[in-house]
Automatic annotation (TrEMBL):
<protein>
    <submittedName>
        <fullName>Helix-turn-helix transcriptional regulator</fullName>
    </submittedName>
</protein>
<feature type="domain" description="HTH cro/C1-type">
    <location>
        <begin position="35"/>
        <end position="75"/>
    </location>
</feature>
<dbReference type="InterPro" id="IPR001387">
    <property type="entry name" value="Cro/C1-type_HTH"/>
</dbReference>
<feature type="region of interest" description="Disordered">
    <location>
        <begin position="81"/>
        <end position="101"/>
    </location>
</feature>
<dbReference type="InterPro" id="IPR010982">
    <property type="entry name" value="Lambda_DNA-bd_dom_sf"/>
</dbReference>
<dbReference type="Pfam" id="PF01381">
    <property type="entry name" value="HTH_3"/>
</dbReference>
Amino acid sequence: MTASDLDRFAAWIEDLIRRRGYDIDSPRGGGKSRLADEAGVHRAAITRLLQRQSMPDLETTRRLARVLGVPVRDMLIRSGRLTEEDLPLPPLPGAAPAGPGERRLTLEEAADALGVPADRREMFLRVAGQFLPPPDAGPRGGGPAGD
């Protein structure tokens, strides 16, 4: 990881933090402390990242991703720690039927893959779940409508 990786990641996360409503610009805004509290991390980790001093560790990254409503995968790729090839996305539902021994993407994984924000995740799961067969229905015959 280079200094430019850290700078790019910090700039991206600063913008994300601001878009999520955390006041990180004014000294008394309390945004850094509030973010740290909600994520369950030390305020110093947030400060070091925003001052481009250090990249957060994996657990801090995971916690920030949850609070900011972005997939951990995106955080790791944008940080420069891993590449898209290191973390390939699973096939999307409906792209191809799961073969023997393969598993389908869960709604939670789909929400992560699609970047559904944390404040809309529950609604996404509830609405998308209405389109799935009941768990005891077994596999459906045929393909998507119109096949």
